[in-house]
Write a structure and sequence with these properties.
Blueprint lengths: L1 H8 L1 H21 L5 E2 L2 H12 L1 H14 L7 E2 L9 E3 L5 E3 L1 H9 L1
Length: about 110
């Protein structure tokens, strides 16, 4: 039951992950390589949503997109690591590692 609740908790993240993966596959190639930062804004958005969730990850992504403009110097801007109880599938979807979540809850 606990595993189901944890995986329902990450369901909105996976909806946005699916949207960003679709964006990167179908829309982004039409624009070419225009991002001034590394990783690209879509990769940064994907990582921030995966690591930090829908609300905070969306805020981080919005701030990044606002900074990515012709007047910006650009550079390397990595996503800061999120909670350790989350893991990723090979397709980029988020799921909760039950054993890790239980250990952190007991502390």
């Amino acid at each position: 039951m606990r595993e189901l609740a944890l995986n329902l908790w990450v369901l909105p993240r996976n909806g946005l992950v699916l949207f960003i993966v679709g964006w990167r596959k179908f829309i982004s190639p039409l624009y070419g390589d225009v991002c001034r930062y590394y990783p690209t804004c879509s990769a940064y958005g994907l990582g921030s949503i995966q690591q930090h969730g829908v609300i905070y990850g969306s805020l981080l992504t919005t701030w990044r997109i606002l900074r990515c403009n012709p007047f910006a110097k650009g550079g390397v801007d990595e996503v800061k690591p999120g909670p350790k109880w989350l893991s990723l599938t090979k397709n980029g979807f988020v799921y909760a590692k039950q054993e890790t979540a239980l250990v952190e809850k007991e502390k």
